[in-house]
Amino acid sequence: MRTTARIVVPIILVVAISLFLQGHSLPGGGFIGGVLTVAAFTLIYVAYSLDYLEVGVLDREVDYDRQIGEHRTVTAYRRLFKFGLAVTVGSGLAALLFDEPFLSQDYEYVHLPLFGEIELASAVVFDIGIFCVVVGGLLTIFSVVGAE
Amino acid sequence: MTSWIAIAPVLVAIVTGTVALLVRNWPRLQRAIAVSGTVVYAAVVGYLSWRVVFAADAGGILYQLGGLEAPFGIVLVADELSAFMLAITAIVAVYAVVFSVQFIDEQNQRVYYYPLFQFLLLGATGATLTGDLFNLFVWFEVMLMASYVFVAFYGNAQHTAAAVRYVVLNIVGSALMLLGIGGLYATTGTLNMADMAVQLSAPGAVTEPVVGLSALVFVTFSLKAGLAPFQFWVPSAYRAAPLPIVAVFAGATKKVGIYAIIRLYFTVFGDADVSATVPAVAGDTALAFLAPALLLMGLASILVGGFGAVSRDSLEELLAYSSIGQIGFIAVAVGIAAATTAGELRHLGIFAALIFALHHAVSKGLLFLSTGVIQDIAGTTKLSELGGLGDRSPVFASVFLVGGLSLVGIPPLAGFFGKLFVFDAATRQFAAATGDTTATAAAVLTLGVLFLGAVLTILYATRAWIETFWGSQSEAIRAGVVHDGQIAVLATLALVVLAIGVGFEPVYQFADAASDAALDTDGYIEIVGLGGETG
Question: What ipTM was reported for this prediction?
Answer without folding.
Answer: 0.71
